[in-house]
Amino acid sequence: IVIVKHQYCWVLNHSICMSNKSEVIYKWLDKREFVQRLKLEAVLNVHDGCVNTISWNETGEYILSGSDDTNLVITNPYNRKVKTTIRSGHRANVFSAKFMPHTNDQQIVSCSGDGIIFYTHTEKSQEINRQCQFTCHYGTAYEIMTVPNDPYTFLSCGEDGTVRWFDLRMKTSCTKEDCKDDILINCRRAATSISICPLVPYYLAVGCSDSSVRIYDRRMLGTRATGNYTGRGTTGMCVRFAPAHLSTKSCRVTSLCYSEDGQEVLVSYSSDYIYLFNPKDDQARELKGPSEERREELRQPPVKRLRLRGDWSDTGPRARPESERERDGEQSPNVSLMQRMSDMLSRWFEEASEAQSSRARPQTRPRGKTALVHTEYTNYEYTDIFFRHVISDQSSGVSEASPDTTETVPSTSAPSLGTSSGNSGGSSSTPPGPGRTGTAEPVLSLHYSTEGTTTSTIKLDFTDECSPSESQPRPNGGKIADGGTEKASISSQNSTPPAAPPEGLSTEDTARPSAPSEDFHEHCSACSVFHRRSAAARIQELFRRRKERREMEESETQNIRRPSVKMMYKGHRNSRTMIKESCFWGNNFVMSGSDCGHIFIWDRHTGEHLMLLEADNHVVNCLQPHPYDPILASSGIDYNIKLWSPLEQSPSFNRVLAEEVIARNELMLEETRNTITVPASFMLRMLASLNHIRTDRVEGDRSEGSGQENEDEQ
Fold first, then answer.
1. Region 153-167: what's the mean pLDDT?
2. Are 376 and 160 in contact (CB under 8 A)?
3. Annotated region Disordered: where (predicted)?
4. 181: part of which helix (H) or strand (E)?
């Protein structure tokens, strides 16, 4: 009770030793009235971008934060003044930053979206600090983890699937290309979160993009730098956890957290819920996972919805599910431009998909060009890397082992795209060339690669829709292939699945136009087929090795502990951002941020929802309880840090409002489960690409028509 009466009483009472003080606080923390008295105490406006990471120092006197503005800021939460602002040297969003233990808060390690790690000394110049960087990760570096009571070493994890261990006594920088010296674990799939057991720090938990949490004994591991690296992702693994319903899915782990006593682990999944498990439990080991063939059948459905970057319409306390907006007839006059563009893009694909599914599924084949967009996640969105046209004379399919998904939709549902001849929709006044059906319908194939969690490829294939019975003879004795594309007889006999061209050979080289000389033409066709077969063989070999590696990993991990789910916490929404922290507070509470802009607090032992706090205009990502005092720090999309304390005179929990928010979150989680976020430029470039493709198609029709006229005249 005394704690509630004055917000600074625990700061002023220095006569109580730290351990006793902590014990007094946590006894009061265990009562549900404590969390139901929480109230916003202060807002720290210390950044000019989304705040992606916050952490307390060992004594709780300072908060270290990192942001999209690439700065690191050390703030005193009690007088609310900034102690130090550090221009970190990062060129991408800062995702994680920690004080090194026992360094008087003068040494900091941080990582960012471009994979670079900086080791910063607050007392040294900016020039010296910027030389202390590690560029070993390729792809996003997600998290930095320090080791309790160790001022010299730290760990990191990233999109490249590696967990790396760095020793500052050996080196304070590394810019070696393709460096493998400090790899501790190679998970062979994106490692998105890590956590160290506080009481037994040689236990390391790693969350991966395949829905698994693996716990390793670091005493059995080593790096190339230490001379005992094994290179196998199963070495040292003693526990493997995944909820049963996620064993066939790839849900990214956004947060891992050990309890203070190290007896339980809390794991939060993207597009799913939060789970608690006991690492010593082994109840799930007898449950065998599905076969590889079954895994292929149970792959997640293809992406059916695109969202444009900057569209935060489905986040925040005032966001509503689409079904509710349609039911209430909400007109939303103040809808942002990004939201309108997202809606248009979604309607385009949804309407086209419905039109496609209303008739028999056609056989399609690319009709000349493929628009390829390679995208990369930032913390919340995708950033496009390149956009280009790829010449292709066959479909862009992949072998069955590929994790890609494809959805084919008619492009005639797209907005009208003008061509150089003034025609739209891909039509032309020029009569169709020989072998083309005048009613062939152009379709747009959305091909989405989900191999990684931060990198993905969206491929838009402009194809002709045509049934096999429409194949027509050519004047030269050849035949039109299934989709209306002519192929040489030697190529049409090739039953090898289509594949990407081999290294050093572009797709333009494998689909070069016919030469005047017939012998040269046959030679080129034979070479093209050879290269395609060679590339296909290499890809098949790659997937064969991957399958063998997975089978070997399964056999090697048969005897490790496989805990079952002890408790599940739901009601929040975790789908929009790559960072969504969940954590323990005291002995009885579990907390998480949410895409609805609220902080959720549950009873740790029963899963009962106890408190809801509105904490961001869009998304709450980070939650960090003070190590000793009853203070909670939170951050998210807003450009600030918020501090919460038990300042309410009496418990205050609006259960009716909480139930409404939970119901909406469940609906919106389902609505957006198969949604990806792309840059706004994606839509403009896609339309421009289709316009370019259609223009080339019209010109090709004219060329073939002109050639036929010349033959008739002769």
1. 96
2. no
3. 284-336, 349-370, 396-519
4. none
